[in-house]
Amino acid sequence: MNSAAKHIPVMLNEVLAALSPADGKTYIDATFGNGGYSEAILQAADCRLIAIDRDPNVCSRAEEMKNIYGSRFDFISGCFGDIARLVSEPVDGIVFDIGVSSMQIDQAERGFSYNKDAALDMRMSCSGLSAADIVNTYGEKELADIIYRFGEERKSRQIAAKIVEARKNAPIATTRQLAEIIYQVIYKKPGQPDPATRTFQALRIAVNDELGELERGLENGLSVLKPGGKMAVVTFHSLEDRIVKNFFRQKSGKSAGVSRYLPAGEPAETAVLSFCSKAILPSAEEIDNNSRAHSAKLRYAIKNDKETEK
Length: 310
Known about the structure:
alpha/beta
């Protein structure tokens, strides 16, 4: 079994239904990963697909797909927040699969998982500030703020205090070390969610600026979408979903001032989207077959058929 077969894209059927790939059209898979969505889109229609990913470890998979699909497939290395700079042509549809990929989690050496002892890394791009850098250099309040804001962890202050206390003796270098520190604050109980989940999520989001990247990706993605084009976004926790929901509502002209970039009370902008869906959940069957799907939500939107004058 090759790697493509082992990593199942979440809500694939729902994403394909939302995008409705058609012959002669061009699509973007903004979070290529192991190419699950990309391959499904290319197989659904005689279309062209542009894949984007910042993770250098996906390049071999991209080369494999290039050999199969030729001129119908192109890969661009970069952050999807820069999509408007990376892709110069207008496209008919875009899909985002937000957050860490199952492939990244499965690679223990990447340091994303508390279940696998490894260097405390968590960098999707394999460059820049690591989770170990944050854990060992940030002040106690900064750490507590990150853990609370991005992990929604109620015991963020206690965990931050324990981290600062522990690193006085030696740097916190591995995922196991960090998890054991967290367990001193929140006891690990059989059958219960792992207490390290929220803190690890928070650090991963901070390391990769995931929420800022999502905001930029949605805004810039919409700018390269053709009139009538479709955007589908799969999220995995409330922080991501809230950003997508508010962005779609704002661009549909349904609410005012939801963007942090708009002054309070600023009138809602002219509708750029003609439709935005409610959250679509995975089927019970998919959740049973793919554990990563249990927290997934899909929202999709359609751009107006005609550009609106500003």
